[in-house]
Amino acid sequence: MALELVREKLIDQNPLAIRGLTVSYAEKPAVFSVDVSYRAGQMTAIVGPNGAGKSTLLKAALGIVRPISGRVTAFGAPLDRARARIAYVPQRASVDWEFPARVIDVVMMGLYRDLGLLGRVRPHHRARAMQSLARVGMESFATRQIGQLSGGQQQRVFLARALAQGADLYLLDEPFAGVDAATERAIIGVLKGLRDDGKTVVAVHHDLATVPAYFDRAFLLNITAIAEGPVAEVMTEANLRAAYGGRLGPARQAV
Amino acid sequence: MTGAEFVMISLVPLVIGVLAAIACALPGNFLLLRRQALIGDAISHVVLPGIVVAFLLSGRVAAVPMMLGAGGAALVSVALIEAIRRLGRIEPGAAMGVVFTAMFAGGVLLLEQSAASGVHLDVQHALYGNLESLIWLDGHGWGALVDREALRGLPPELARMALVTLAVALFTGLLWRALVISTFDEGFARTLGLPVRALSLALVAVAAMAAVAAFDAVGSIIVIAMFICPPAAARLMTDRMGGQVAWSLGFATLSAVLGYVLAGYGPLWLGHQSAVSAAGMIATVSGLILALAALFGPRRRGVAAV
């Protein structure tokens, strides 16, 4: 009995479990010794001040940047064996939108794991990509060059690409940054739909005011982990002060 | 010019010119979109001393020693850049600039001081190759193309360039999807499990191979031009990756053919006695195509149909 308990503790079955993660740019730690598990079927916001390491934590968890130390498992397996179940939506500004591609070309990239290097694109692949576009309200833009889209439309295309992956865990880096109100509503609608289908959503979020309305749980981060749990329990005055320090000001009033 | 003269004098340089242009333009498309377009320039500078040393050691212009020399020079340059960056505490761009130009200058000095000058490798050769000298002595008319004996007399540069072009085309074709995804969005590519770093290294290695092979036949001027001009012009013609690559191959071929013909006959048409450098003219034509595309291309920034 005791042994079983130990074993269960060792292998975290959560969609994403991070243990002892430390990332450093130059000499300064960007993320220090973070332990956190994200629950299945929940929407979790990663919240913290600028420079708190929110994006870095996501990137390190996905192997995009190399951590100094730490262990990441997804669905109880090493990351590389769970890749097919994870979809990542990077920050919109991280790519060059002048790239010669149409909206549909970008969404089709989400099918890479099904298509492989040389697999033929079949009608059902194309249909899946179009369905994903329809879910974010962008189906009429399929043949538009991506550079002609507004910021909000670009963000929706990125979300559609993630939807096309058909993943169980969705990791989003600032999905609401610089988007119009209509896009924000559309995106949160899609994310809640995913959650209602039993998928797991984790998003870096910068607007403290909308955390309670949008998310089930919150993870407060400022280089080190401050708190993780249901939004009401995490977003307390004391925790926010610990994360934001003297910079809270207007953010606190918003909560 | 009769058919026999064309086959003997112009056919092989023309084909080699087209192959070299294509081999450089193909990886150039990806390098351009990755903001690494100058890597072709850098490679063609850095490898010069390596090629000269390989020539001095082996005593002949052959593919294998040249590739080894070029590869060795590339490794030395990487080590030098890192050393200068660390010891001098300066930014990587400046360290690269110093190393590339210094190694090219060293290569030129080495050429002049060595017995290499005047034999086959000389400074002119390094800059604009020896395209015009690649004549096919056994090519007596079109019939030679099916004459086994005559085919054996083809300049070895042709087979070498064809092989390299084929390798570059295979690399691009087989890894197309992975190259496009990792060029557009590296972070996303990594989450798909793509070996992003290896792909990026392979792309540079393939570009280096194309540069070294083309360098031998057509010199470094054309290498620099073909890595950048056809892909950049092609980007202004289309909004799709496949379209861009197709246009760039068309532009590369057009530059090579038009440049070769203009260099050979243009001066004569104008009443001059001698021809001008084919490599120089090919590079010039590719630049003119880019200028025209920048002025009239349908997909210039800001004019794309909304």
Structural description of this entry:
- The complex is a heterodimer of chains A (255) and B (306).
- Chain A is an alpha/beta fold and 255 residues long.
- In chain A, 36% of the residues lie in helices and 24% in strands.
- Chain A has eleven helices and ten strands.
- The longest helix of chain A is centred in the C-terminal third of the chain and has 16 residues, at 181-196.
- Chain A is globular.
- Chain B has a single domain, classed as ABC transporter involved in vitamin B12 uptake, BtuC.
- In chain B, 76% of the residues lie in helices and 0% in strands.
- Chain B is built from twelve helices and no strands.
- The longest helix of chain B has 40 residues, at 196-235.
What share of residues of chain B is helical? over 70%
Low-confidence stretches of chain B: none
Question: Can you count the beta strands of chain B?
Answer: 0
Low-confidence stretches of chain A: none
Strand order of the largest sheet of chain A: 6-7-8-3-9-10
Global mean pLDDT of chain B = 86
Terminal CA distance of chain B reads: 50 Å
Count every helix of chain B, treating DSSP H or I runs of 4 or more residues as helices.
12
Nearest-integer average pLDDT of chain A: 91
